[in-house]
Design goal:
- The structure is a single chain.
- With 375 residues, this protein is mostly helical.
- It has one domain.
- 72% of the residues lie in helices and 0% in strands.
- α9 packs antiparallel against α19 and α16 runs antiparallel to α17.
- The model has no long low-confidence stretch (mean pLDDT 91).
């Protein structure tokens, strides 16, 4: 009987707790969103599966010595995985639209207002007893940049205990761009503004595309060294893409490397979706603040584009301002789709890509500023 008792106590059925069951259901929910709804499947599939693994009792996946523990420690705690993802994203990014119309950099900057507005919102939640420190608030605020790797990088540095909730919120709202953004865009623009057709962008030379990442890196080194890990890897990836002499390296960064790192990044984040770290009032606060941050970023981008349209000699469709959040290229596609609904001849995709890639740089710079101030 003693042996049977020991055997029973070694089973999952004897050790399951309610919180673990709930978090395994959360993991299944992430898998459903990824598989059935196609919401950020590349990360939500490994993240959801990681959430299931880390909540299996007795298995010890995320305990010291477990697989998920080593993945988290080696790649996320050190910050390596988000930086490698940024290099891959840089290798897949074409800065041509931004170089052809540098004014759209302002739209990418304006959309980051949601980050700093949410910073104060997180501090304000202390009034209802959630107890967010300045580091916690900074890590939560970066969700407004709609950039998953940046959110994970900053959370791992400032608030590792909140990493799971922040990552889930960041990628959930990135996946919900086609649902969240259009109502905000329509509410802040008139039909006539949405019909505005923009002039064709000029041709950008290869030399300009090679100089641009180097120039961005130099500016970052001079004025905000804290942002150079993210910006530097992004610029390296982009330089490999544009220089034309390392096609194999560029292809690897865009495909094999970023795919491998994405698997481990998702599993590592999933290891932080344990019941004791996720099932609390702070998580609800983070999810609510993430929605606010993303909405504010979308709105400020649109409002800045409206202002540019008033002041610029050339017409600017305010819809492209919503692409200032760095959900590349989904936000640009949403702006193009809403523009086509108002005017079937209105193709805004290339124009929206300018603020979209500017938003990637903007979120990295915002992360650097927060690291410099509170890190």
């Amino acid at each position: 009987m003693e042996s049977l008792k020991v055997l029973w106590l070694s089973t999952g059925l004897a050790n399951f707790e309610l919180g673990q069951v709930i978090m395994m259901l959360v993991g299944c929910g992430l898998l459903y969103l990824a598989i059935a709804r196609n919401f950020e499947p590349l990360l939500l599939v490994p993240m959801g599966f990681g959430a299931i693994l880390t909540n299996i009792p007795v298995a010890g996946f995320s305990e010291v010595g477990g697989l998920l523990h080593f993945i988290y420690y080696a790649g996320i705690d050190t910050g390596i995985f988000p930086l490698l993802i940024f290099m891959g994203v840089g290798a897949m990014t074409d800065f041509g639209a931004l170089i052809a119309n540098p004014k759209t950099l302002l739209l990418g900057a304006a959309a980051q207002f949601g980050i700093f507005a949410t910073l104060f919102g997180a501090i304000a939640l202390n009034l209802v007893g959630l107890d967010f420190s300045m580091k916690d608030a900074s890590a939560i605020a970066i969700i407004g940049g709609a950039d998953g790797p940046t959110a994970i990088f900053l959370a791992s540095k400032l608030a590792p205990e909140l990493l799971g909730a922040i990552a889930v919120a960041a990628y959930s709202y990135m996946a919900l761009v086609p649902i969240i953004q259009p109502p905000i865009m329509r509410a802040l623009t008139t039909v006539e503004e949405r019909k505005i057709e923009m002039a064709q962008l000029r041709h950008v030379t290869k030399v300009e595309k090679i100089i641009f990442p180097l120039g961005v890196l130099m500016m970052t080194i001079f004025f905000l060294p804290a942002a150079t890990p993210l910006v530097g890897m992004f610029c390296l990836g982009n330089l490999m893409r544009e220089c034309g002499v390392v096609d194999r390296l560029s292809s690897t960064a865009q495909n094999e490397l970023i795919n491998i790192v994405t698997i481990f990044l998702g599993l590592g984040v999933g290891s932080k979706l344990s019941a004791d770290q996720f099932l609390n009032a702070k998580t609800l606060g983070i999810l609510a603040l993430g929605a606010v941050a993303f909405s504010i970023g979308t709105a400020t981008g649109v409002l800045m584009a409206k202002l540019m349209n008033k002041l610029s000699k050339e017409k600017v469709n305010p819809l492209i301002g919503a692409a200032g959040v760095s959900a590349v290229p989904m936000a640009a596609r949403v702006a193009n789709k809403v523009g086509l609904e108002a005017n079937p001849h209105n193709f805004l995709l290339m124009h929206a890509m300018g603020p979209n890639v500017a938003g990637v740089l903007g979120s990295a710079v915002a992360a650097g500023i927060l690291l410099a101030l509170v890190g």
